[in-house]
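fwd from M.: "can u put these together and see what the complex looks like"

so here's what she sent:
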Amino acid sequence: MFSFIARRIGTILLTMLCLTLVVFFLVNLEPNLKKLAISQTEMHTSAEQLESWLVGHGYRQNFFMRYGQWLGILPKQPITDPATGKTTQRFSFCNDPTVPTFSGVLEGDFGCSTKFKTTVAAKLFPALGATGVLMFWVLALMVPVALLIGILAGMREGSRTDRTLSVASIASTATPEYVSGVIFTVIFASWLGWLNGSAASASQGITFYNFTLPVITLAIYGTGYIARMTRASMVEVMTQQYIRTARLKGLSFSSVVIKHALRNALIAPFTVIMLQFPWLLTGVVIVEVMFRYQGFGYTLVEAAGNNDIDLLLGCSLVSVFIVLITQLISDVGYAFLNPRIRVQ
Amino acid sequence: MQTEYINAFDVVVGVLWRFWPVWVGLVLVMGVSFAYKKRLGLYGQLFDSGVGIAGVGICLFWLFTAIFASTVSPFDPLAQVSIMKDTLPGAIEPTSKLIYYFGGDKLARDVFSRMVYGSQIVLIIAPAATGFALMVGITLGLPAGYYGGKIDTLLSFLANLVLAFPVILLFYLLVTPGIMDTPIPYAMAGLFFLFPIIFFSVLFWTRYKNRPDRLYILLGVTLVVGGWIYSGLVFDKDPLKIVHIDPNQLNIFVAVVFASSPGVFRIVRGLTMDIKTRDYVAAAQTRGESPWYIMLWEILPNARGPLIVDACLRIGYTTILLGTLGYFGLGLAPESPDWGTAIKDASRLLRSFIHPALPPTIALMSFVLGLNLLADSLREQSMKD
């Protein structure tokens, strides 16, 4: 068990290393650097000035050296004026060092956001907190509803309840966030006027009025999927011998479902719920942009739109970490829940 | 001048009437399928359940809408008639006396025509991208599952690498206007579009290598047709000027294939690992068949059931991905009538007008729903066997 987890964590670290290298390569493509330089300098700057901005801020150093600096295995260099030899900070708004220091991700320094003019940590972690709140409510709504639908549908396979709920879950998996978001906004905000079509005010305080729409929009796409997996698992369990035995010894249907079937049927959906996190990350981006909620997804779009290199790298690191850690938890948790599975 | 309107009932009747070629096609295909459903194998069995009929019906509806888009839609999807700006559904266009059935959007274009033409973009890109993703996933997944070992470790690591990316981040990195100045999209296209040629060449080679009369014809056709399409798509140098793709469409296409082929890879790999333990594979190995013959002619046909179901779901998922791209304004031209872009434009103005938002959302949802119902019904039917 221990060596399994150790090996998996090794793979996770290797994956993160490869992915950040790919992202680093893509954000440092020539057109993207031009975009960054244009957005960071005054209007109508000449090509030479853009170039000098890039050189002056260290963007023209060797690719692998800069990646090493970001990672923290090479010292971060301050800007040296070639004429005077005086060193200055790279970005004054981030308290960058004036002497070469090891200050990268490994040392806990995520770099400097050129778009928000602050450190990446100061921008990213509050945003993650805001998204965490959103995620919490989404999961609190999605998981119980999906499990309930799945169990009700899978309890009696082929019944009318089953067919109705199955079609409903299929319909919900056919509704991406940008579709359900528009439809819910039309119904609840424009037409009925019950809810607020924007969650911009939710940063100050979450209310039912401003937070319901993002939560249900984000929840609906995953609900159908989890419900279908629960149903499949429930259907399988209900055909097992021990369920028949329990029925034949005279237990009522409800107690068979609750005492015997449920615990066995909920193992598979656990994995599915954990593996929903990567999908939820994409959904979070859409929902946060649509409802103007200042969280992780909103930060990611801003970073990508402005080619904010360090912030985008931080965002990818966080999202890749979430994806891989949830996969690990789902594997380990599955082994715990199902004693027949042994990890090796 | 005051815009004149027709009433809601006339709008409904008018819309249904505009779709007449679609209805004709639908009735013909459904009728023929229904009459001969006993002889049509798995496809015929779809007509045994309500879910299957609904799935086939919805998919065919959008297919015919895409085919007959120019007949169905009364207006050019890009034409702007300034007087019709933000008009409500049922407004009459004064010069042609034709009707804006679903009203006009903020740039005074006909929402109905845009929805109809949007189906064309989706129904070309989504199935084609899924097809390429299937080719890539199968060509790499079969050896990974069959041989195992180092090749499996390497390919699985690469697949997990791509899958660990949140899709949206991948798109923001791969589908930006700037990236068109670099050779990356073309290199990726060049790589991905090679897979179908490799796949079919190996497919025919393994089967007919002792029958040169068939082999040379089939290989020749594969290489000529494949090379022709390849030169048109990747280098845009089709000698006959038929195969052509816009650079930004190529970019989208490549990104979508890139995002969805690891999923296919994982499924094919899993299926291969399962199927290679069967007796008929052992029999083929004993006969001395080559590994690629076993993979392509013994394992792949027996994995087709789950793959067909997955392909249906994946077309739906690709449609959602295209919508996501449109919603974030990535890749597609800003005036493009595809559903994602239309939803993006309309959702910004929901406070004042809701009518431009609803047709594309419902169109996208119904198409994906149709594909999901189709997949569900296919799964049910193939499980029965």
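replying to her w this: The longest helix of chain B spans residues 111-147.
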